[in-house]
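As the work plan foresaw, our protein records have gained a structure token line. A representative record is set out beneath this paragraph:
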Amino acid sequence: MPDTFLARSQVVAFRLGRHHLGKRTAPLEAAYVGLQDTPPGAGGTAFAARADGGPEAFESELVIVPSLRGAPMAVDPAEQAIFTTAIAPRDEDDAKVVVGNAWKPLERHTAMQALDVASEAVRDVLADGPKRKTDFHRELTERVPEDLRWWCKGCGEHHVNPSLWRATGIRGVLAIVGRDGRSPVYGAPPKARKVADPGAELARRFLRAYGPARPAGRRRRASGRRGRRSPARRGSRWRATATGGRGARRSPCTTSAGPPARAR
């Protein structure tokens, strides 16, 4: 198939349609690729631009979990795996990408081990119910080994590196369940259903929403870093997903710019 060149206006129109910004949609459809909630409240604003129901629908229909690049994302609770398990590390190199610089000062744990230990500690801290940020940090720090206690100049004390505890969101143990003034309240997310291949589904959703992209662009979307591979999907699996199957040449831009069907 010959190359197709699109004007910028065509690309923007495609993305506006796929992001439900041209026609209002159902609350869960609004979060098809997740709604990033940074700064706090941004997710609700993005939701209001796409769906009806207001703050009540946003809070009741969606759950906010640390996801892509450690950022809080408002997603369909039933589809958490697409935004969490999909980017879970498969080896030590992946784990270093996921936890950011938190692995560098470690002396007795690898990046993968640190993520495992921190995830279990988060699960334990939130087992009794939601916690305000200060209480969450204190109890989490008490439950991890010393080399996971990072010196924070801003706080003037040791606590778990934010890049590490945010990364535990991909283990399905952490959600932002409310706010107490300006302080977030953390809790355990609702149980998510299993997805056969969440990494492939995440890649498909990226392509359906943004159009054709090189693997490097999708890696940056998932990890926020250049150069390193994304745990979400790599090599030939990325290419197969991007083209609709090995050897295929289909492009999302060759279809209607209307909202894509949800994968169930």
Observations:
- Confidence is low (pLDDT under 50) at residues 232-264.
